[in-house]
């Protein structure tokens, strides 16, 4: 997906997620100042790969409704916390919230909003924004200002990501839906300017640096849009997209930055909504077990949280309703549904809950994904 600055309401459609447990507001006015100490607020480095190094999350202690809730990020309109959001977070029936430009007025207002969301959630909510840089900045008074397409040095990519992490962390945001890990490999690529410049190996180095920078800044990062939309000229927000690229080329070009992100211990990977006939000729990536389980988990060895791109994207809605798409995505291996319409949360929650009650196999998938989300929250200090 793409997001514009807050003033462009038409393009604010997307999100994703995570918030610092205890909000530290050290900002004066509307400017976000730099922290003292190079690693202040940094996340603990952990692969989250199920090797026993992290405490197992108590997923069995959650009710089925709460387990389902861990799979859904909600969206709401306005600059204050609505009652239904408060109730969902207080009941543990939502993983957190995605914030857009209409949720943001000033640094103080945003700190107050994220604080109220965490208060309702008992300091356990994932709070996410799309802060790529350039025009894709939900929080205009936080870094990074330059677009990724202008950044060619890994050291600079890491520096800017670290500053973005620090700024967002101070504002109560704990997940950035960045960096873009796509390779803009065709003229007129939909991610031109948003993706780092160069060939796959250069992009991979820059993506890995950004992942490290975000962690050192205190927030989780998200490599997107798996398995890569750099060969597309249309955005899946606006149209159904098919990428007819040989599998060998996908392996060589598109997957390389995601490999680097995984090696750098990226916390989330965002599944895109394009169709890749050479990988799966029936299902779009976010609903494809061969892509999510086969390529991402088995081939690349990723064990972290898989978040979907916007569940209201045209590439999704052209195939099914948002609630039905959520069921397909979870069944295929996705962990966290990114709902980007204020009316989508409850229909998605109810549909997932109903399917979990109906199918023992689906319920097992819900438990598996809820455990991953809880593990991510632990790493962020949210539990």
Query: Numbering strands along the chain, what is their spatial order in the largest sheet?
Result: 6-3-2-1-12-11-8-7
Mean pLDDT: 89
Q: Give me the secondary-structure category.
A: alpha/beta
Might you state the CATH topology name?
Answer: TIM Barrel
Q: Cα distance, first to last residue?
A: 30 Å
Question: What percentage of residues falls in helices of 4 or more residues?
Answer: 25-40%
* Shape, per Cα inertia axes: globular
Q: Count of DSSP helices?
A: 12
Keywords for this entry:
about 375 residues; globular; two-stranded antiparallel sheet; alpha/beta; 12 strands; single chain; TIM Barrel; eight-stranded parallel sheet
SSE topology:
Layout: H1 64-69, E1 72-75, H2 83-90, E2 96-98, H3 107-121, E3 126-129, E4 131-133, E5 136-137, H4 154-170, E6 175-176, H5 200-217, E7 222-226, H6 247-254, H7 256-263, E8 268-271, E9 275-276, E10 280-284, H8 289-299, E11 305-310, H9 314-317, H10 322-332, E12 336-338, H11 345-358, H12 360-379
Parallel strand pairs: 1-2, 1-12, 2-3, 3-6, 7-8, 8-11, 11-12
Antiparallel strand pairs: 4-5, 9-10
Helix pairs in contact: 2-3, 4-5, 5-7, 10-11, 11-12
Descriptive overview:
This protein has helices at residues 64-69, 83-90, 107-121, 154-170, 200-217, 247-254, 256-263, 289-299, 314-317, 322-332, 345-358, 360-379; strands at 72-75, 96-98, 126-129, 131-133, 136-137, 175-176, 222-226, 268-271, 275-276, 280-284, 305-310, 336-338. The protein has one domain (60-378): Glycoside hydrolase, family 3, N-terminal domain (TIM Barrel), CATH 3.20.20.300. The strands form three sheets. An eight-stranded parallel beta sheet has the order 6-3-2-1-12-11-8-7. A two-stranded antiparallel ribbon has the order 4-5. It is of the alpha/beta class. Helix 10 packs across helix 11 (345-358). It starts with 63 loop residues before the first helix and ends with a helix. It is built from twelve helices and twelve strands.
């Amino acid at each position: 997906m793409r997001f514009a600055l807050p003033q462009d309401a038409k393009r604010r459609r997307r999100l994703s997620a995570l918030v610092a447990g205890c909000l530290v507001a050290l900002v004066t006015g509307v400017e976000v100042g730099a922290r003292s100490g190079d690693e202040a607020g940094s996340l603990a480095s952990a692969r989250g790969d199920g090797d026993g190094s992290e405490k197992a999350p108590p997923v069995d202690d959650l009710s089925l409704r709460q387990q389902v809730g861990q799979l859904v990020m909600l969206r709401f309109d306005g600059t204050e916390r609505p009652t239904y959001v408060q109730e969902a977070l207080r009941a543990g029936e939502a993983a957190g919230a995605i914030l857009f430009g209409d949720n943001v007025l000033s640094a103080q207002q945003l700190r107050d909003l994220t604080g109220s969301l965490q208060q309702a959630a008992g300091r356990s909510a994932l709070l996410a924004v799309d802060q790529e840089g350039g025009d894709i900045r939900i929080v205009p008074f936080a870094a990074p200002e330059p677009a990724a397409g202008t950044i060619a040095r890994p050291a600079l990519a890491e520096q800017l990501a670290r500053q973005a992490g620090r700024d967002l962390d101070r504002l109560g945001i704990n997940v950035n839906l960045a960096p873009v890990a796509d390779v803009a490999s065709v003229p007129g690529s939909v991610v031109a300017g948003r993706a780092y410049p160069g060939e796959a190996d250069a992009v991979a180095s820059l993506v890995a640096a950004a992942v490290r920078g975000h962690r050192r800044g205190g927030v989780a990062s998200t490599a997107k849009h798996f398995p890569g939309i750099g060969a597309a000229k249309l955005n899946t927000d606006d149209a159904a997209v098919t990428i007819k690229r040989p599998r060998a080329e996908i392996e060589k070009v598109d997957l390389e930055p995601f490999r680097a992100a995984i090696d750098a211990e990226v916390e989330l990977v965002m599944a895109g909504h394009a169709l890749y006939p050479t990988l799966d000729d029936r299902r779009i990536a976010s609903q494809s077990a061969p892509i999510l389980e086969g390529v991402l988990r088995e081939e690349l060895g990723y064990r972290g949280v898989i978040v979907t791109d916007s569940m209201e994207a045209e590439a999704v809605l052209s195939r099914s309703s948002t609630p039905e798409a959520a069921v397909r995505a979870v069944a295929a291996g996705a962990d966290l549904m990114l709902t980007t319409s204020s009316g989508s949360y409850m229909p998605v929650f109810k549909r997932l809950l109903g399917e979990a009650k109906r199918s023992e196999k689906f319920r097992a998938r819900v438990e598996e994904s809820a455990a991953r989300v809880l593990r991510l929250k632990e790493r962020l200090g949210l539990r």
